[in-house]
TrEMBL record:
Region listing for Disordered, in residue ranges: 1-20, 117-140
Record localization: Nucleus
Species this protein is from: Poecilia formosa (Amazon molly)
Pfam families: Med30 (PF11315)
Function: Component of the Mediator complex, a coactivator involved in the regulated transcription of nearly all RNA polymerase II-dependent genes. Mediator functions as a bridge to convey information from gene-specific regulatory proteins to the basal RNA polymerase II transcription machinery. Mediator is recruited to promoters by direct interactions with regulatory proteins and serves as a scaffold for the assembly of a functional preinitiation complex with RNA polymerase II and the general transcription factors.
The protein, known as: Mediator of RNA polymerase II transcription subunit 30
Cited InterPro entries: Mediator_Med30_met (IPR021019)
UniProt lineage: Eukaryota, Metazoa, Chordata, Craniata, Vertebrata
Keywords of this entry: Activator, Nucleus, Transcription, Transcription regulation
Length: 180
């Protein structure tokens, strides 16, 4: 890597190609890296907030009790510094949030049902994915669910018919037993 020139380029002159690449790389930050930075920022915010509450808990109220002005000023300075840092961290978090939204603006939202594998309620076994079959599309999945629903309805109807036949046979056998 070469060192940048000491003299800035003239106004009419375009920046060197290496500088253009560096600025382009600085702009194209990975969204996952931004999310990690945002997570670390949130952790810093929580840490600073806990420190603020710790300082507030340790501060004594000026209720007529003699207190040390130097200690009070020191704690007040620390508190103000924590509040300033908290403000900076919130601004940083806002910038990260805006940049993530900007990076994800062109993406189509994908429903979570397609991203997360789930177990169906009917306990059906999943197809063998190692057999070379690709994942089902949402339309195919919907069709399969419809067919399963119709199959359950038909099974329920068959069960009712079988129960009615069983009751009829029971009654016929009871009548025959009474006759003999």
């Amino acid at each position: 890597m070469t060192t940048p020139p000491l003299v800035p380029p003239f106004v009419g002159q375009p920046p060197p190609p290496q500088q253009q690449q560096q600025t382009q790389a600085a702009r194209d930050v990975n969204t996952s890296s931004l999310c990690r930075i945002g997570q670390e920022t949130v952790q810093d915010i929580v840490l600073r907030t806990m420190e603020i509450f710790q300082l507030l808990r340790n501060m004594q109220l000026p209720n007529g009790v003699t207190y040390h002005p130097n200690t009070h000023q020191d704690r007040l300075g620390k508190l103000q510094e924590h509040l300033r840092m908290l403000s900076v961290l919130f601004r940083k978090l806002r910038l990260v949030y805006d940049k993530c939204n900007e990076n994800c603006a062109g993406l189509d939202p994908i429903p979570p049902e397609q991203l997360i594998p789930f177990v169906e309620d009917d306990g059906s076994k999943h197809e063998d994915r190692s057999g070379g079959q690709s994942h089902l599309t949402s339309e195919e999945r919907r069709e399969i669910l419809e067919v399963n629903k119709k199959l359950k309805q038909k099974n329920q109807q068959l069960k009712q018919v079988m129960d009615q036949l069983r009751n009829l046979i029971w009654e016929i056998n009871s009548m025959l037993a009474v006759r003999s």
